[in-house]
Every structure is written in structure tokens, then in C-alpha cells.
Amino acid sequence: MPKAKVTDNSVPTTSPSVSRTPVKINTGGTPTWYKVIMFGLMLLGLAWIVVFYLAASYIPFMVELGPWNYAIGFSLLVVGLLMSMGWR
Q1: Nearest 5°: phi and psi at 30?
Q2: What 3-state DSSP class applies to 87?
Q3: What is the DSSP track for 30-67?
Q4: From CA 31, how far away is CA 38, in angstroms rounded?
Q5: What confidence tens digit (pLDDT) does each residue in 50-76 have?
Q6: First-to-last CA distance in the chain?
Q7: Smallest Cα–Cα separation from 76: which of 34, 48, 56, 54?
Q8: Cα separation of 41 and 46, whole Å?
Q9: Structure pTM?
């Protein structure tokens, strides 16, 4: 194989003052309040459905809502899950 020609006037492309140490870039991340609301909505939706299954006959407004309790509970869960897509 032929060897590459090396000339004496070749200058290194990097200067000695350039650091090659990787630096962590601060992207901000997700604020704490966002995570609290996200997990809170998911837990509230789960708790709503569990309470509906276990104690709906003892809670008057849940009896009046009837099957809308499923919509409320799953809506809270879905909103929390959709918020998780914005979590960094």
C-alpha cells in the first residue's frame, strides 16, 4: 500500500487552548410543578376509578353520575399520560 506523504509545513488544526472535555449542556428540564401535576392527575384518575368501584353506592354524587365516572377517571389518567410526553 502506498503511504501518505507527510510534509514539514503541516500545521495542526486544533490550537492547544481548545478543550476536548465534554461539557454538559443545561437544557432546563421539566419544572417540578409540571411533574407534580402530571403524576397527581394520573393518581387522581386511578383513585377516582377505584373509589367508584368500591364505594360508589355510599357517595351520592357518584351514584348520580353513573357511568360518567369512567369518563372522568380515564380522562384524568389520559391527560396525565399525555403530559408525560412533555417530560424531559
Answers
A1: -90, 135
A2: coil
A3: --HHHHHHHHHHHHHHHHHHHHHHHHGGG-HHHHHHTT
A4: 11
A5: 999 999 999 999 999 999 999 999 999
A6: 51
A7: 48
A8: 9
A9: 0.68
